[in-house]
Write a structure and sequence with these properties.
The chain is α+β, with helices and mostly antiparallel strands and 420 residues long. The chain has three domains: 45 residues; 89 residues, PDZ domain (Pdz3 Domain, Roll), CATH 2.30.42; 197 residues, 2-enoyl-CoA Hydratase, Chain A, domain 1. The protein has 14 helices and 19 strands. Strand 3 and strand 4 form a beta hairpin. The longest helix is centred in the N-terminal third of the chain and has 22 residues. The termini are far apart.
């Protein structure tokens, strides 16, 4: 390029000297020379991608005012200057660019999956996988435990909702996506992963070594306490949870008690349909359970009760929630709170109230993108701050050490002294 400019300068000044005493034709000729030179330089020094790449499978073009010149300049600079650029395929660079594009949304739940990550995502949907058994999310830009699953390695290692994961083995989790974090946490059964955990109330982070195992997601347990409180502990909203919940309610109706306690603490959610079905046992047909708000002048979608509603106003109903109650848990609890069918006891819920849609980009890549927000029947956004319990009861480190459960105790006390 430097040599080309030098040669052009020699030609330019020679022409300028020749036409020094000429009239307007001089100006016209000089403009023509500059224009021709610009075309020549532009063709030989423009983004290489424009000249050598044949773009195939092109989507419908969109109109944008964005300037793509910086992108191509960076692309060429990487290829020309970075010593490791030739070790990365152009396709992987494109994947990286797509990930950056999705990352610009600042939404931890919108993610592009490369082929290897897409396989991991699909294994999640199947419900049985190898790992340590906990749900994680990004909260206040920090990788945070939503909830450990019952009887899993994470549960047995005393991992708790709200624990902040600072490192996974030697990898610092700052700016790490949820999917990449999950990929690092998982591994072959029998191998060990070390998590550096910081818990509110602790002075320093601590390392927790956990042995990976096959993980099967649990669903629910039931118990009729001696004081007449019937407890349903729901661990997840899985594909079969609605049917199991129906069976649990059948046990409740034959237990000769009117005091029902639904424990959603540490329940990270799951299937929306399951939450709607469970809500239907307590609501009249047609009542809104949750609304999907798409914004952008797109009509909202309402999910309504199927109207099983087998209980009268005499039902004494309490729901336990905490920072590990998320997604479908918040839908069910939020509907019961808004319609005053149940009182909520415990801590603020997690606040995972967004709807993701899975888009197949190519046969082996996936885009999971947020398309809407969940609103409770009263129009409150779950994703803004979660649900606020009617009775806020903290669960302290001292309570855990002394094996006390003040949240459960409070809910039981309210049910036994019901005055809703």
């Amino acid at each position: 390029m430097i040599q080309l400019k030098k040669k052009f300068n020699e030609i330019f000044f020679a022409i300028l000297k020749y036409f020094k005493n000429r009239r307007a034709t001089t100006t016209v000729l000089l403009v023509a020379i500059f224009f021709g030179f610009g075309i020549y330089v532009g063709y030989h020094n423009g983004p290489a991608i424009d000249k050598v790449v044949n773009v195939s499978n092109k989507e419908t073009a969109v109109t944008t005012t964005a300037d793509f010149a910086p992108f191509w300049k960076v692309w060429n600079s990487i290829n020309e200057k970075n010593p490791g650029a030739n070790k990365i395929s152009d396709q992987d660079k494109v994947y990286g660019a797509i990930s950056g594009l999705v990352g610009s949304l600042n939404d931890p739940y919108s993610v592009f999956f490369k082929p290897d990550e897409a396989k991991l995502f699909e294994s999640d949907i199947q419900g049985s996988f190898g790992g340590i058994g906990m749900e994680v999310g990004i909260k206040d830009k920090v990788l945070t435990v939503i909830a450990p699953l019952k009887n899993t390695p994470a549960y047995k290692a005393d991992i708790r909702p709200g624990d902040k994961i600072l490192k996974i083995d030697k990898t610092i989790t700052t700016n790490l996506s949820i999917e990449k974090a999950i990929k690092l946490i998982r591994g072959d059964v029998g191998t060990t992963v070390t998590l550096t955990i910081f818990r509110d109330g602790d002075q320093e982070p601590r390392e927790v070594k956990i042995v990976r195992d096959n993980i099967n997601i649990p669903t629910l347990d039931t118990e009729l306490r001696k004081d007449g409180v019937f407890v349903i502990k729901l661990y997840s909203f899985s594909a079969n949870s609605a049917e199991l919940f129906r069976n649990a309610l059948k046990q409740f109706t034959t237990s000769n008690t009117d005091k029902l306690l639904l424990d959603l603490r540490g329940n990270p959610g799951g299937y929306l349909d399951a939450a709607v079905s469970m809500s239907s046992w307590f609501l009249d047909g047609g009542k809104t359970v949750v609304t999907e708000d798409y914004g952008n002048n797109i009509k909202a979608k309402e999910y309504r009760s199927q109207g099983y509603n087998i209980f009268t106003d005499k039902l004494k109903f309490a729901i336990l929630i905490d920072s590990g109650s998320a997604s479908a848990s918040e839908i069910l609890a939020g509907a019961m709170q808004d319609y005053k069918k149940a009182i909520l006891v415990g801590d603020q819920s997690y606040g995972k109230g967004s709807v993701q849609e899975v888009v197949s980009v190519t046969p082996d890549t996936i885009l999971k993108i947020t398309v809407a927000k969940w609103l409770t029947p009263n129009g409150n956004s779950i994703s803004e701050k979660g649900l606020t319990p009617d009775y806020k009861v903290p669960f302290t480190k001292k309570d855990i050490e002394q094996k006390k459960d003040p949240q459960l105790d409070k809910a039981v006390n309210l049910l036994n002294n019901w005055s809703k």
